[in-house]
Each structure stands twice: as C-alpha cells, then as structure tokens.
Design a protein that fits this description.
single chain, about 170 residues, alpha+beta, FomD barrel-like fold, 8-stranded antiparallel sheet, two-stranded antiparallel sheet, about 45% strand
C-alpha cells in the first residue's frame, strides 16, 4: 500500500480538519499522537453496517508508536463516543519532515466498543505477497504482529478505552 502520512486528512477541499500533534514518551507509549476533528465533511465514510466513521464532528486519534509496527486509530463520533479502534500493521512507523507516517502492510485489526475483535484484509496481504509486493519476511511479520496483538487485546477493551480516552481529553482541553 505504501506510506500514509498523518497530514493526509488536512487541507482537503471537501472538509475542514482541525489537526494537532503531540509527542509522548512514557512507559505506555513512545511516539506521536495526531488529533483530527472533522467539520463540513462532504465525502463521509461508512463501514459495512452503515455506521459513519468519518462525519461532521467526528474526532480521530492516530498513535504512531516508533517502537512498534502497529499504528492505532481511535475513531469517535460527534458525542465523543468510541466508534472503533483500528490497528494497521506496518512495515515501519516513522517520521519525515516532522510528519509521522506508516508504511502499511495491508493487515488490519478492528476492535468494536463491545470488545469484538476482527482481523481484516488477510486476502489483501496474501495478494500482495503473491504479486511480490511483500516478501516472505514481511508477510510472516505482519501475521505474527496481528496474532500477538489480538492476544493482547482479548479481554482488554477497558484498558484500551481508558488509554485512548485519556489522550482524547488531552487534545479536547488544548
């Protein structure tokens, strides 16, 4: 898939985006956290059940952990209620010219507010491997990272929610 930069949601003609970034280095996270608040969204995004994940008043947090190969996006509705947590497995999490990025490896994990965990896009990872866009080492790493993350997430929804809500409040109070 390639690199996706944190500022990709900013400056779009079809919406107004408030964008803030902080750097964090503590025992639970080391990296950058990007905050987005979306307004006047013309190209809304919905998930298959019809629920919007990008709409007016929605807030997102993206956690770029430089000690990991996993990027977390916490998506909140206009009432600051979690819609879902979306984890991207990446070749690399990095920063260029002050802008965080992820070099995506297709495989994703979604955690719903109920605690249900879904592994997504295994077919896309396999297809990328078959096209030689992903080598065997990257393929195995992505699968291993996803399996380890799923094990860590099982029965830990409350801890995940506490973690992301804490940083949402930090940005809302700035």
């Amino acid at each position: 898939m390639g690199k996706r930069y944190a500022d990709r949601h900013v400056g779009r003609k079809n919406q107004i985006t408030i964008y803030k970034i902080i750097s964090v280095a503590n025992n639970e996270f080391t990296g950058d956290i990007c905050y987005y608040k979306f307004k006047d969204v013309l190209n809304k995004i919905t998930i298959p059940n019809g629920e919007p994940i990008l709409d007016d008043g929605h807030e997102w947090l993206e956690f770029y952990d430089y000690n990991s190969k996993i990027k977390l996006t916490a998506m909140y509705d206009e009432n600051a209620q979690i819609i879902e947590w979306y984890f991207d497995i990446a070749r690399k999490i990095g920063k260029e010219n002050g802008v965080p990025y992820e070099d995506d490896l297709y495989l994703d994990i979604v955690v719903k507010p109920t605690g249900k965990i879904n592994l997504l896009d295994e077919d896309e990872l396999q297809a990328a491997y078959d096209r030689c866009e992903v080598n065997k080492e990257e393929y195995d790493m992505a699968k291993n990272q996803a399996n380890q993350l799923i094990k860590r997430l099982e029965n830990n929804k409350a801890k995940l929610e506490e973690f992301t809500n804490k940083y949402l409040k930090v940005f809302q109070n700035k």
